[in-house]
Amino acid sequence: MADHLFPPPPETIRCKKCLRDVVIASSEQKTMQSDCLIADCPITKDPDNQPGELWGTSISFAEPSDISQDDRIARFEEWDRIGVETIRAGLQRGGKIYIGQRAAEDLAWEWVRSKETQELPTSRQSREIVSLKPGMWGFSIQLRELFRRCARWLRER
């Protein structure tokens, strides 16, 4: 009951979609107000951030950016079409495809790093067939998990 009497304190988190620090705070209006224009923003979709009975939610960016949110969205869509490898190669050549704009180059590097970290766990998991776990008499293999992975591997082929 005490949770409903006082609004929760503001919280700053990093948005994985727009690559910015975002402040989530309570508002007196019982609605959602968000500066993020990305349709599938994980912060606005989070059930914990939805307006409640007594408080609404205000989602704002922690710091201003040289690049507008509309421009970010357009760049992310363009970079998704071009691909991570091509963007990384362009940046390593000196970033000439970004017209020398420092903020756009920094954003592109951050986008490349975020895409690489998203791809890393899936590629590592797909190569791993057997996982060894420490057991009482040395290392053990979980046969059920081995069977599931082999069956999944056969279905993919």
Number of strands: 6
Strand composition percent: 15-25%
Q: What's the Cα radius of gyration?
A: 22 Å
Q: Classify the helix fraction into a percent range.
A: 40-55%
Order of helices and strands: HEEEHEHHHEEH
Total DSSP helices: 6
How far the N terminus sits from the C terminus, by CA atoms, comes to: 55 Å
In spatial order, strands of the major sheet run: 1-2-4-3
Low-confidence stretches: none
Which secondary-structure class do the elements indicate? alpha+beta
- Counting structural domains, the number is 2
Q: Specify the overall morphology.
A: flat
What's the average pLDDT?
A: 76
Largest sheet data: 4 strands, mixed
Give an account of the 3D structure.
By secondary structure, this protein is of the alpha+beta class. The chain folds into two domains: 2-61, no CATH class; 69-126. It is built from six helices and six strands; from the N terminus they run αβββαβαααββα. Strands 1-2-4-3 form a four-stranded mixed β-sheet. A two-stranded antiparallel sheet has the order 5-6. β3, α2 (42-45) and β4 form a beta-alpha-beta unit. α4 packs across α5 (102-127). The radius of gyration is 22 Å and the shape is flat. It starts with a helix and ends with a helix. 9% of the residues are buried.
Strand-helix topology:
Blueprint: H1 2-5, E1 11-15, E2 20-27, E3 32-34, H2 42-45, E4 56-61, H3 69-82, H4 84-92, H5 102-127, E5 132-135, E6 138-141, H6 143-156
Parallel strand pairs: 3-4
Antiparallel strand pairs: 1-2, 2-4, 5-6
Helix pairs in contact: 4-5
